[in-house]
Amino acid sequence: MRRAFFGLILLAACRGTPPARGQSPDLAKLVDSLRPVVERAAGLSFRGPTRSAIKTREEVRAFLLGKLEQDFPPVRQEGVEAVYRLLGMIPDSLDLKELLLELYTEQVAGFYDPEASTLYGVEGAEPTALRFVLAHELVHALQHQYLPLDSLMRLRGSADEQTAAQAVLEGQATVASILAFVPDRAILLQPGFWAMAREQVRNQAATMAVFSRAPLAVREGMVFPYLGGAEFMRWWDSAHAGQPLPTLATMPRSTEHILHPARYAAGDAPVPLRFAEPAAEAMYEDTFGELEIQVLATVLRGGGEVLTGTPAGWGGDRFRVYRSGAGPALVWYLAWDDSTSAARFRGTTGVRLLAAPRPGYRTTVEAMAGPRPITRIVIAPADWSRWNRLPMLTKSE
User: Fold this and answer.
1) Has residue 333 been placed in a domain?
2) CB-based contacts of 241-244 (< 8 A; 24+ apart in sequence)
């Protein structure tokens, strides 16, 4: 769900359309004054001017609704809601699209639109917040001159990889926007600084009414690209001096890479799992990834902090959601680095899934034979016609 719409900064951002009547000399001056500051903070140089304009909050909401319709169409919404409901991560009554729209419009001060290559300020935004957010969004304008942001954020069928790319972009923008106003890079290395910054962000987010009442899975997904991404980019900066941003070829491939940079440095690429049968019968298909698995574990154990410090041993995953007369059916395969990781997952998250049966449904958590440890989870109506011929992976897995 966090991937439904790129770049909507939790504390103040969204997207827009090309300026016509919204041009603002004052905004243009502010943007121009921030450009050299952002260049120094990000370690990249602008290759051209930055267009800017003002949008009203009504225009922002209308645009966001249009983008949600485009990026989160009914079939995708149905599939995403189905898998999160079946896993117990959101309540059955939640309208995810409506919640996302409320979240994205709760606090809006500025935004960058990669399709229009235009930076926007939102009418009536508080000046201090606008200045900070514009610095953050200017980093995205800068990134767009080095990477194809549109294509990166429109990856389909690999939500985990898309989240990893988003974390790189938002992480760099988060670090650079801090350095734009506190230019001493040494401050990022001071003991306790980043823990304090993370706590401030979470405390500020907690004061937002819509965000505070959202399910944990939604909240964590919204915050992760900024905080988790910033942690990764701090590591990247120390390990890749002189290269401020990964290239397309070196972009992290999974949230495991973001959470555990050592896995990225070791070249530990996700295992590509594929279903043997065509996707035509499925309602929806995608990946979960390590972050989502850790969030699921937190939800099933009753909430609290999402613990991501220790690698889960995730190697890759793939799921499909199928329609049936009695409700949606989920088939989810997970590959693991080793048998210990697989057994740990089955003994914790797997056991909790089995202990929370859905009325009218049957849940199974099984170890599968293959060249590497595989876990198969099925949550489907008890009378689902596919129980006797469950969808399988290709034989190579």
Assistant:
1) yes
2) 244/42, 244/43, 244/44, 244/172
Helix (H) or strand (E) holding 113: strand 110-113
Domain extent at residue 236: 25-265
Overall domain count for the chain: 2
Q: Tell whether 195 and 313 lie within a shared domain.
A: no
Q: What is the pLDDT along the chain (397 residues), one digit of tens a residue?
A: 443 333 333 333 333 333 334 557 889 999 999 999 999 999 999 999 999 999 888 888 888 888 888 888 889 999 999 999 999 999 999 999 899 888 888 767 888 888 889 998 888 888 888 899 999 999 999 999 999 887 777 666 789 999 999 999 999 999 999 899 887 777 777 767 777 777 777 777 778 889 889 999 999 998 899 999 999 999 999 999 889 999 999 999 999 999 999 999 999 999 999 999 998 889 999 999 999 999 999 999 998 889 898 999 999 999 999 999 999 999 999 999 999 999 999 999 999 999 999 999 999 999 998 789 999 999 999 999 999 999 999 976 5
Same domain, 245 and 285: no
Going by C-alpha positions, the residue among 14, 64, 287, 295 that lies closest to residue 164 is 287
Q: What residues does 332 pair with on adjacent strands? A: 319, 377
What is the Cα–Cα distance from 58 to 215, expressed in whole angstroms?
26
Whole-number Cα distances in Å, 124 to 6, 13, 50, 57, 110: 23, 14, 21, 8, 11
Same domain, 246 and 328: no
Indicate if 149 and 222 belong to the same structural domain: yes
Q: Whole-model pTM?
A: 0.90
**Do 132 and 212 share a domain, yes or no?**
yes
How many angstroms separate the CA atoms of 165 and 169, rounded?
7
Question: Is 14 a member of any domain?
Answer: no
The interaxial angle of helices 127-144 and 159-181, nearest 10 deg, is 120
What is the number of helices (H) and of strands (E) in the chain?
A: 15, 8
Residue at 397 is within a domain: no
Q: State which of 265, 293, 324 marks the end of a domain.
A: 265
Same-domain check for residues 236 and 329:
no
Strands 118-122 and 110-113: antiparallel
For residue 173, count CB atoms less than 10 angstroms from its CB and return exposed for 0-12, middle for 13-18, buried for 19 or more.
Answer: buried
Which tokens hold the place of 120?
């926007």
Q: Are residues 320 and 220 in the same domain?
A: no
